[in-house]
Structure formats: C-alpha cells, structure tokens
Amino acid sequence: MFLRLTPRTAVLVSYLFINFLSYALTGLDKVKAKEHTYRIREFSLILISFLMGALGVFIAMKEYHHKTRKLKFKILIPLALICNIAVICIFYFKVYVFLP
C-alpha cells in the first residue's frame, strides 16, 4: 500500500527535496529584497547549503542574480557544494574517498 523506497532512492528523494526547498528559499529572499520586507537570514541560507541544499542555493544565486556580490556566498556556497558532493559520493555510491 505504501511506497517502499530503497535506501539509495530515499537519499536521492531527500536530496532533491532539500535542494528544491533551498532554491525556493533563495528565490523567496530575492522577492522579499525587492519588496523591502522581512528577509531570510544569510545564516539560514548558508546553513541549508551545508545541510545538503547547496545545489539549490547555487542555482538560485545564478538564476536570480541574488547574493552574487557577497564574498561569504562566493566562498561558502561552492564549498558547501563540494562537501555535498563528497557526502553523496560516500553514502550514495559507497565510494570511500578517504579510506584505503
């Protein structure tokens, strides 16, 4: 009756969901910036990036031209994306990069 997910599929679905959420939050922050209303904190966007949502924030940054001048976003979002890719490689593909 319920949809049964393999661990790999569950990881992929979770990754897609968190990146959709991070993309939406970054887009919402851009809208709020144009309206001069309550904004989403930079810390929150960076935190969600390090919690596996870096791809969504990175794509939204490029698409909406949002936070592209801020040095901390220029450095931390690509760094979070590299960390996200490493985690996906370790858990999804079972590639143990740091182990002999």
Description:
The chain is mostly helical. It has one domain. 73% of the residues lie in helices and 0% in strands. The protein has 3 helices and no strands. It has helices at 7-35, 42-64, 71-91. Helix 1 packs across helix 2 and helix 2 packs across helix 3. The longest helix is centred in the first third of the chain and has 29 residues, at 7-35. The chain is globular.
Overview in brief:
73% of the residues lie in helices and 0% in strands.
**Percent of residues in helices:** over 70%
Structural class, please? mainly alpha
How many domain modules?
Answer: 1
Instruction: Count helical runs.
Output: 3
- As a percent range, the share of strand residues is under 5%
Secondary structure layout:
Elements: H1 7-35, H2 42-64, H3 71-91
Helix pairs in contact: 1-2, 2-3
Please supply descriptive tags for the structure shown above:
100 residues; mainly alpha; 3 helices; 73% helix
